[in-house]
Amino acid sequence: MILPIYAYGEPVLRKKTVDIDKNYPELDQLIKNMFDTLYASHGIGLAAPQIGLNIRLFIIDATPLAEDEDYQDIKEDLENNGQKIFINPKIIKREGELWKFNEGCLSIPDIREDIKRPEIITIEYYNENWVKKTETFKDIRARIIQHEYDHIEGILFTDLLSPLKKKLIKRKLEDISKGKIQVDYKIKFHSR
């Protein structure tokens, strides 16, 4: 089932989320719905707050990037290991150079900005089978994971902008929160 994505201005996007356990109701169906929603909106990552849930869960699917010429050196890995589920994740290390990349967000349509993030992360999480994992990512997945991780911490990519950039996009953000924007996927605006 395709769920509406909560847009900028929805209070749930600003809350730090809570851990879940193995008995979380219908978790398998929730994860399936999140992937359905992700694909319907042509995204590569989706966090639970973006669908209105205040829980520590996010998904990514970087496999579409395998066709991008910028990622040919990791094409096979993206094709075989691009889809991931992160339950109760905790980033335990961020390292490497700060890497500038133009980011966007399904909850903040039509705004893209350069964001600097560390190039390497190590994250601890449970997968969908409740197997605890610790993995290090040093490619585009590190970027996607950090973006989605910020969502479960109540942080949006626009929070990482300079004061000047924030001022420049303030009107666009207000328009998004008021529903004054068109998108080609299901979206829920705060004012509606």
UniProtKB/TrEMBL annotation:
Key words, A-Z: Hydrolase, Iron, Metal-binding, Protein biosynthesis
- Kindly identify the residues recorded as the active site: 148
Task: Decide whether keyword Iron is in the record.
Answer: yes
**What cofactor does this protein call for?**
Fe(2+)
GO function term, MF aspect, one: metal ion binding
* List of residues binding Fe cation: 105, 147, 151
Q: Which domain of life is it from?
A: Bacteria
Free-text remark on how the cofactor is bound = Binds 1 Fe(2+) ion.
InterPro entries, per database record: Peptide_deformylase (IPR023635), Peptide_deformylase_sf (IPR036821)
Pfam families the record matches: Pep_deformylase (PF01327)
Q: Which reaction does it catalyse?
A: N-terminal N-formyl-L-methionyl-[peptide] + H2O = N-terminal L-methionyl-[peptide] + formate
Q: Which GO terms of type biological process are on file? A: translation
Check the record and name the CDD domains matching this protein: Pep_deformylase
**EC number from the UniProt entry:** 3.5.1.88
The UniProt transmembrane annotation reads: none
Please describe what this protein does: Removes the formyl group from the N-terminal Met of newly synthesized proteins. Requires at least a dipeptide for an efficient rate of reaction. N-terminal L-methionine is a prerequisite for activity but the enzyme has broad specificity at other positions.
What the record says about family reads:
Belongs to the polypeptide deformylase family.
Task: Give the matching NCBIfam families.
Answer: pept_deformyl (TIGR00079), PRK00150.1-3 (NF001159)
Q: What is this protein called?
A: Peptide deformylase
Please name the taxonomic classification of the source: Bacteria, Pseudomonadati, Bacteroidota, Flavobacteriia, Flavobacteriales
